[in-house]
TrEMBL record:
This is Crotonobetainyl-CoA:carnitine CoA-transferase CaiB-like acyl-CoA transferase. It comes from the Bacteria. GO terms for molecular function: CoA-transferase activity. SUPFAM superfamilies: CoA-transferase family III (CaiB/BaiF) (SSF89796). It holds the Pfam family CoA_transf_3. Keywords: Transferase. InterPro entries: CoA-transferase_III_domain, CoA-Trfase_fam_III, CoA-Trfase_III_dom3_sf, CoA-Trfase_III_dom_1_sf.
Amino acid sequence: MNAPLAGIRVIEVGTMLAGPYATMMLADLGAEVTKVEPPGGDISRRVGDSYFASLNRCKRSVCLDLTTAQGRRRLGELVEDAHALLVNLKPSAIRRLGLTYEDLRHSNERIVCVALTGYGLDGGDEPAFDYVVQAATGVAALTGDPDGPPTLPGYSSADNSTGLTAALGLLALLVSGRGGQVDVCLRDVMLSQLNYRASAYLNDGVAPRRHAFGAHSYYVPAQLFPTADGYLALFVTHDGFWRSFAAEAGVDGFATMAARVAHRDEVLAAVTTALAADTATGWEARLRPLGVPAAAVRTLPEALAEAPHMLVRAGDFTLVGSPIRLTGHTPTYTPPPPPH
């Protein structure tokens, strides 16, 4: 069977992570992605070959200087034959280079133009790198020990999330059959992902706060716990899970979610004492057959070793493959485009 996006032609004017990740996900599904690189190449090439490969496999690239009339003319030729254009630049640069739908509709009325920015096409040019946005939207303030400093997640959550959202917006307008502008920004995506945290504040006046070991604000116990060796993530969301866990761990009482929330400190103390009797991997092996959500904290190398089906070859690179499984489609992974 043909790839689901076979025949769909996407132009990417992107840099670093968010935009390239969006178009790579489309390329994995069969879209023909042409990456437009400036003279000297995408700046991410300077980070390292493996970094560039992790975001740009399955694409081809052209080198165009969009600040020149010749470069813009060549881009116009590409647009005439394309279904979508995704741009990951500052709003002023997007407009200056003529990369909005209003600019390009004269070349292709059905083109889908996606602007992926920090604060929106009308939000200004303030710097909006991933870590900056995590700080600005409350993510860093929500992360870490309550008695310690705010903490950033160990990966680029804002860039990756915004890339996926941009790809979704692109496909939504493409499916509609009409051209137009898609406007997606890092700030708004991260605020949207704070959904139940924001709702608790907006509707109930409950300001979010940090809990030790990353504890969930609603469910108890749902957090990391120290064990005899290593840390265990335990996520008890209903009374059935609790009954199974409590019977295995020898914990009495707190039969309902309401009781566990009302007596959070006592529950956490009892669970912490019980889990000290075995290792994290030991508890995982005991609890999973009971259907209790639990996992020992692993390093990335350990996690990759346990998921060999996710590792793919793209030329000389071993990469994490697409997480999307579709009936009748197996991605063909090709290496990233070479430098010009």
